[in-house]
Each structure stands twice: as C-alpha cells, then as structure tokens.
User: Fold this.
Amino acid sequence: MAATTATIVLPGDLIPQDALPAPQNKKKVLKLGPGLRQTPPTIISASIAGALVADARKGSAWIETNSGRYTPTANDLVIATIASSAGESFNCTLTPHTPTALLPHLSFEGATRKTRPILVPNSLVYARILTASTQVSPELTCVDASTGKSDGLGQLKGGMVFGVSLGMARRMLDRRNGGVVVLEGLSEKMGFEVAVGRNGVVWVDANEVGKTLAVGRAVQEVDELGLGEKAQRKLVERVLRGVA
Amino acid sequence: MAPEASLSHLHRADGSATYIHNGYCIIGAVNGPIEVMRRDEMPEEATIEVNVRPAAGVGSPKERHLETLLHSTLRSIILTRNIPRTLVQITLQVRSLPEEDGTSGVNTSLTLLPHLLNTALLALLSASIPLRTILTSLLIALPTPTPKMKQPVPILSPTSTELFRTQPIASLHVFAFSADRKLLLSESEGTFKYAEWEEAYEMAEEVCCRDQGGVGLGGGEGMEVDGEEASANLEEWLRGVVRRKVEVEQRWRSAT
Assistant:
C-alpha cells in the first residue's frame, strides 16, 4: 500500500496526456471513470474535485473522492430498501430523496409466476444493479441471469444497517487494496454476517444486538477516524473486550 | 487575509462547507442530485434551487435578489445536462455578519454576494456535483476622489471597517471569474467611468485567477500552502482547501 503523492484536480482542469495511461495497443481504448469528461476530439478535463488516479494495466483513469451522493452504476452491489410493491416489481430506494429503483418480482432465485417473493415495505435486499442511466430509473436484480443462482443476493433478514461513507464502502468491497482488516480481526473471535452496499450501507447480523452494534460501530469508527491497519487491530482488541 | 473554510462537516447533507472571511460566516449545504418536483422537472437539464437564509429573521426581497444572481451564475458552471431530471438544492445560511455591516453605508447585498458565491462553490465541490469549471469571486470598492487624492486606489475585498472609514464610496463592484479567466458575473453600483470599471476588473482578475501556465498537475507547486501565498490568490487558496480535503479522505493510506 504505497502512499503515492496524489494529483489534486479541480473541475475544469485539463488533464495532460502524460498523466493518463498510455494506450498499449490500438484495440485498448482509454476508459474514463467518474469525474472525467471528454470534449471531442482529445481534450480530457475533470468535472469534480479530488485525486486523479490512473491505472496503467487497465488503461483507465478516474477521480477518487469520498463525498457526495451515490450515483447508481451498472454491476454495483447495493443494499436497497423496499418502498412498495407495484404490479410486477418492487420499488426500492437506494439513497433518500431519489427516484425509486425497480426490482422485478421474478428476479429472485427460484421465483416463478406462481411463487413470488413476498417482501413487505422496509425490508432490505442485497441486489446488483442491472442497468443504470440518467434517463430511466435503475433496475435491480437478485439473481445471476446466466446461472439462475442468487450468489448471496436476496433478502437480508434480521440484523441492522449502518451508514458509512461511499469511499469506505468501496474499500470494504475491494479486499486487496482496501486496507480494512477490522472485520477479519473481529471474525477470529466472533461470528457475524456482513453485506456491504456501494450506496454507503453496511448490514451486519451477529444474532445478538450487542454484538451486531459492536461490529457496526467498529466499522463506522474505522471510517470516521481513517484508521490504519495497526489502529484497526487495536480497535478490534477493544471491541472484543467489550463484548466478551 | 485568506478566507477560512471547512468542507463536508454536515452529516445529513450530501455536501457542505463553512466559509469565514472578514467577519462573514456562511454555512452552505448542497443536496443533489435528488428527485425533482414534477412542476420543476426539465427533461434534459438539472433544476437548481438556491436558498439564501439571512442571519436574522426570514428572507426578504434582498435575499430573493441574491438567489436570482446566484442561480444564474451557478447554472453556468454546473454541468446540468449530465444530471437531467434531477434537482440540485443549494442552501446558504448566513451565520454572522460583521458588526459594522449595517452601518457602513453601502449596499449590503453586494458586500455579501462574493462570500455567498464562494461558499456555494465550496459546497458544490464537497457534494461532487459535476462542474464545468470553478469560480472565484471578489468585491472591489472605489473610493470617491478627493482634492488630496485625485486617483483613489481601489480596495480589494474590503472589510466593513475599511468601507466605513473610506466614506464616501464612489462605487462597489463584484466580479466572479471562472478558472479560464472568463467573467461570470459583474455587479456594480454607484458612479464610475468605464476606465475605472476596467481597472477594477483587471485587479479582480489578477486576484481571482492564477497565472496562466501549468494546470496544477505535477509536483511543481508547493505541497504546503502557507498563509501569505494563499491569501494572494483565490484560486491557489481554493486548491489548498481541496488538497486538505483529499488528504483527510486519504489519510487511511498512510495511517498505521
């Protein structure tokens, strides 16, 4: 985990060619992630403030920032709240005050026209975003279309949800480079289930309210204080002493 | 003196900023992109809503006027077409005004405007709303020529005390510039000649925009922005604020 000196960009800054990954061959085009926009033909500029990150291997560049509202993106794993059931699908909320996302009744494992899942309003589902665009509301799914299996997606029963920053959610999902060891540390001594949604929601279930709260609060503390690995291990020790 | 700013300190808002300068303290909060009311929905653009709340009492026509100015200025820098059919809600709460604000004998909506613009921009940056460019804003006062001083020196971002002391003020100007030195807003009041306005415009441009040259990439610029350097130039100051924000966000990388 090398602490590289980040290049800070502000909206409107032009990104010079040498700051972007060089195209290795003609077929591999440069991919622009969040916060970068292209003005044809070759001008690339930033549209949000943050640190410019370039991945030479993938040929992509984006702007890393840890603030703002979650924008639905295809293939993201999210924790959605059921708002209502209408006709063929559920209306789900990903973030407050945004148009609801659609979760069809049939996109659950083993669901057929005769046996539909019954989810009451305010139940939680762990889902994948199928399509997302600025023009239509996002569509969710809880099943892998090719295999028909749920792969861990579906309703989340019991437990509690905790809000974390979007950056923390990304770190927890990116297991290699995220630098989050608090969950591994806690799992050595106690059993619990965790689901992380890219929309900044973490669901924890440890069968006991005290333990669930301890895990969730530990994750939130790591997020708020920006703890490193050593500090996280210390926190794990403190939390385990508290619940034992 | 450079303005003080802190970003993303409100938990419930998507983006927030507090801005303190010359006795003005303003809290800005941005929510967005969120669902827009049917009535205000635009099929290909985002709707922008600006609310200015005064330090005391409820809003008056003065606040409505400021909201109109802010709305049209911010609309030109927000990439509204990237987030169609949504709402970006900007709320600016004036927390405190300098004590002499009411007694300095000048238009108080003009003295407040540059601070509101800078706060709104910081809050928008904090909320990661897609922007075309950044914006920096400044107030300039031109004192009335006296027999002693035929050519009065314009005062850059004067404090209320300065305005009070250099009575009578001939004219007040508010300028807002984008990063590529384009004029986004110019509001003036009082009696002035075109040459005087142009002089004020050039002075404001010098302070708001930094020298054209590097585009802020590469390690050329200093890592730490010290007080004097930051006060000299508003764009440099803004970069310093954002750099500190990114450092706070990325501290887990270097933490042990």
Q: What stands out?
A: Residues 100 and 160 of chain B are 6 Å apart (CA to CA). The first helix of chain B runs from residue 61 to 77. The first strand of chain B starts at residue 4 and ends at 7.
